[in-house]
Every structure is written in structure tokens, then in C-alpha cells.
Amino acid sequence: MKRRALLLLGVTSLFGGCLGIGENQPQPQLAWIWLQNDREEEYEVDVVVEEDGESVFSETYPLGATSDTANINVDNPVDEPGHYVVRATMGGETREVDIAEFVDGDENCVGVRFSLLNNGSVDYWTKSMQQC
Length: 132
Fold this sequence. Notes:
Order of helices and strands: HEEEEEEEE
């Protein structure tokens, strides 16, 4: 049994290192959250950012229906890099984004946009960048 455990450890270490899995990877940074309302009604949007299951940012934003009030940008909602999950509840629906899933190579800075679309759906879009 010890031989199998040793072999498994060796294979895991080998492939983990080759795939870049490990603690040497930089933590992603949450650059911004952009809230957008394309509908003709006003909405409140609850935004929560969690790290390891704990809320590190929580705010409710009013999104209007005019061009002046339908967009809200939140720059640097958290100060430090980390493994963040961003959740927005808008129009009765919740969308969740794990920013680590959207890191693209050396572009470890991620922005997230949540949109209330005029077709009645709620969607999100992400952008990865090299610098925040």
C-alpha cells in the first residue's frame, strides 16, 4: 500500500508541476464590477464578493433606466489579490462568477460586468487584463 501511495504522490507532483498547478500561481485581482441596466424599469442590485466563503464586500446599488443612471462602475472593490467569487442579484435572478476561472495566462486581473438585458434575461461578461 505504501508503494501505491508513493507512486500516486509522484504522479500528482509531476503533473501538477507541468500543468502549473500549485502555490506559485499568482492570485487573481478583482479590478472592477460594472452593473448595467438595459431595461426600462429601475432595479436594485445586491453585490457580494466572497473569499473562502466569507463576505469581504457587500453593497446594494440602484440602477436607473436612463442613460445617466443605468450604469454603475465599482473600481477595486477589494484591495488585495485573492480567490474571489462575485455574486450579483438583480431582477430576481442571481449570477455568480469565480474570477479564478477567467484568468487568461498572465492576465490575472479580472473585471466582471453584470447586465439586466432588455430581453428579460440577466447575464455576465468578464475581461482579463495584465494590469489592474
